[in-house]
Design a protein that fits this description.
By secondary structure, the protein is α/β, with parallel strands linked by helices. It has two domains: 206 residues, Vaccinia Virus protein VP39 (Rossmann fold, 3-Layer(aba) Sandwich), CATH 3.40.50; 89 residues, DNA Methylase, subunit A, domain 2 (DNA Methylase, Chain A, domain 2, Alpha-Beta Complex). The chain is built from eight helices and nine strands. The strands form two sheets. The chain has a seven-stranded mixed β-sheet. A two-stranded antiparallel sheet has the order 8-9. α1 crosses α8. The two termini are 19 Å apart. About 3% of the residues have low confidence.
Length: 309
């Protein structure tokens, strides 16, 4: 089945679907560094361009349309402007793309979207209700949604995300079952890392601070299950937000490769960009393990539906 990937980033969602046997035929992202990473790792090359500037007629028809549309407008870590944020209205651009395919006589069979956990609660639930209304009543899809945690799918990272799966027909879809966690963050650590990843004596007190003024939050390091990776890891937040580990008697930050591992990317996945860009990409990525589990369930659901016809 052919897949079109919107907001592909460095390719976490795409990789999960490719591993399940899907064929990504077109991908796009506005971030040139994310596209650089994507294009050295995937046979299909992503287009680096604003989705609003791309001619919709140039986006090919597909069986499956996937996308982790920008989450900052709905995240509790951001300003939560939702549809008032230009990035928040990108969902309406997705609607336009789907309508264009329908008008060409090729309605996507499946839609897959990923966003932050808070999407369901944003604006007292009205944002998610609007999205669901468009998918169900305007585009005539059957909608399934669930919050899934990456730590339930084999990677030691607490990462709760909202997944929305839509079918163009009456399909009995069941979200993947939890497989549990058999490894810890410590199992994914690299050895003999460069000195630049270790915290200096100067910055260490700030990183291990519990806050300033009236703000207090207990810091912790060496967690067996990592906190959610975030796109701003390069800024080195305090140890109550970012992940730090002890190695060789010293405290250090995670390396980009360790972040990739925490998102389910194999060590064969090439990281051709700077550390700061890599942190951003893996902080924004969809966990490959979760993507793959969803893709497998989609294939099963479609096979059952076809056999029942």
């Amino acid at each position: 089945m052919d897949v079109v990937s919107l907001f592909c980033g460095c390719g976490g969602l795409d990789l999960g679907f490719e591993k399940a046997g899907f064929n990504v035929v077109w991908a796009n992202d506005i971030d040139k560094y994310a596209v650089k990473t994507y294009n050295v790792n995937f046979q299909n090359k992503a287009i680096c361009q604003d989705i609003y500037e791309i001619n919709i007629d140039e986006i090919p028809n597909c069986d499956v349309l996937i996308g982790g549309f920008p989450c900052q407008p709905f995240s509790m870590m951001g300003e939560e402007k939702g549809f008032a944020d230009r990035r928040g209205v990108l969902f309406f651009r997705i609607e336009e793309i789907i309508r264009a395919m329908i008008n060409r006589g090729h309605k996507p069979t499946v839609l897959v979207f990923e966003n932050v956990r808070n999407l369901k609660n944003h604006d007292k639930g009205r944002t998610f209700a609007k999205i669901k209304d468009i998918l169900e009543n305007n585009l005539n899809y059957r909608v399934y949604s669930k919050i899934l945690n990456s730590a339930d799918f084999g990677v030691p990272q607490t990462r709760n995300r909202t997944y929305i799966i839509c079918f163009d027909k009456d399909v009995n879809f069941v979200f993947p079952q939890k497989i549990g966690l058999k490894i810890t963050l410590q199992d994914l650590l690299e050895h003999d890392v460069e000195q630049k990843y270790y915290l200096s004596d100067k910055i260490l007190p700030t990183i291990l601070s519990s806050g300033t003024g009236g703000y207090f939050s207990q810091w912790k390091i060496d967690l067996p299950v990592a906190r959610p990776l975030c796109a701003t890891m390069a800024k080195m937040h305090r140890a109550n937000q970012d992940n730090y580990v002890t190695q060789n008697g010293k405290i250090r930050r995670l390396t980009p490769r360790e972040c990739a591992r925490l998102q389910g990317f194999p060590d064969s996945f090439i990281i051709p960009v700077s550390d700061s860009q890599a942190y951003k990409q893996f902080g924004n990525a969809v966990t490959v393990n979760v993507s793959n589990a969803i893709a497998i369930q989609i294939k099963k659901a479609l096979e059952v539906s076809e056999n029942e016809q």
